[in-house]
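Can't paste images in this forum, so I'm doing it all in text. The chain is below; anyone willing to post the predicted structure tokens underneath?
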Amino acid sequence: MSRMPEQLRSAYTAEMTAARHTGDDTRRWHHLERAHILSQPYPWPHTRNHLAMLGLALHRRDRREALGQVVRILLAAPGSVMGRYPEGNTGRTAAGLRTPMRVPDDLAAMLTRPT
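Text version of the structure:
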């Protein structure tokens, strides 16, 4: 698997940083979901994103989400390496493990640009 291109890494880092620095859990989920979409093809960033989602689920005492994130942590790296991940999926438990979703236009433009 190739390294995350610098433009994607910058966008991913910005979303993860925004998630860490906002005090609003709804906004935090939003940033983590966007980071997830960017990170899916890359094993470590993808796993790191699910670890952050697990942390937020535990903070919110959301058992269902936490359990779903544990499963996703186990599957993230192998799924990235094998290219078996649902494009655009936000990474939340409610989204389903294999459900592709529409990629936001701004992220789609970054994901389709030649690196």
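Residues 6-112 form one domain. DSSP finds five helices and no strands in the chain.
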